[in-house]
Amino acid sequence: MKSSLIIFLFSINSLNTFGQWEIVTPYPQLNDLNTVFFADINNGWAAGNSGTILHTNNAGVNWTTQNSTTTETLYSIDFINSNTGWCVGSLGQVLKTVNGGNDWNLIDTLPMGDFVYGADFIDQNNGWAAEFFGKICHTTDGGENWVVQLYEQMYWLWSISFPDQTHGWAVGLNTASQEGIIINTTDGGANWGVQYNLYQRPFYYVQFIDANNGWIVGSYGTILHTTDGGINWSTQTSGSANNLYSVNFVDLNIGWACGMNGKILHTTNGGNLWQEQISGTDKFIFSIFFTDSNNGWAVGQEGIMLHTTNGGVTDIADETSDIISFDLKQNYPNPFNPSTVISYQLPVSGNITLKVFDILGSEVATLVDEYKQAGSYEVEFQSAVGNRQLASGIYFYRLTAGDYTAVKKMILLK
Q: In the prediction, which pLDDT does 7 show?
């Protein structure tokens, strides 16, 4: 029985992509892209290592390289319209453009000396920047001059968010206690106070869409949410153990988060439920940005750039009325390490099993063994099964539903 199964499995070599995140130009390019921002649906910028700044004026169909005037690493980019924007990075550098990036000017008066990971401008004059080693600076003249509002060396700060001129938050790590820290201000940064310092995981990104509603993401899949300006924070279940590096909401309900190993999560109810989307990559995704509920971009490791025009949902219909046949999809990514997603659809309800086998035909894991309603489903397969770490090589997964059986091949590559 095993021999005949192996012969049949080796005849399968189909490969289908079905995620609605698409890898777009200018990938591949070797420089990491650390930040992405769109002023409107057409005009966007991405920035990263070695002074890289890329620009599109046609919704990402084409990207061009802009002269940043620096070779330092750039971590955060922010625009208030299609012309005026700022980009910050290492050595305390702040770049500014007033013509959409055709010319970038280095502002060298910023009183910071190291990695500036976050910046947020609310208009052409007022902006704030967060430096890794505990500094927050403020400008009231569009970045020409900066004033230090906070300098606390025990803090490592990664991100800053101002939804208006008075309310602001910054997040990072308290190195003294090794706890994630949230600091905030209600007077434009004249005074900063610790709002949360109890979570033993660093926070990497914060976004507030108004003075009350905000989200924070961090290590080990951490997502925090507040609806009262940070007086109370609730933990949301991300379903991921991967570090999350960025979060972006377009309104109170619809948002995305991204992180390690190509992880992209999506919510339509403010984060009460997060669902994983198929990104099509296992590279780290450092930044994600949406102009509306459909159009979004994500960038990351080795210049990976992703784009979606339907919010990142798969092309497998959510409605069961369109499903007329059984279908077992090719896993994605493939080859994979350490995880991959297997998708399948059922035209009728019934008991189904989805199992993984090694090249000898021995069962490795049972992913599904239960009654399922007709519909489309996704399941993640991890290369660590219990306490056992699977070796590199060829594996097979088999879907059985009544008289229907389908088998496909996948490759674990370390």
A: 30
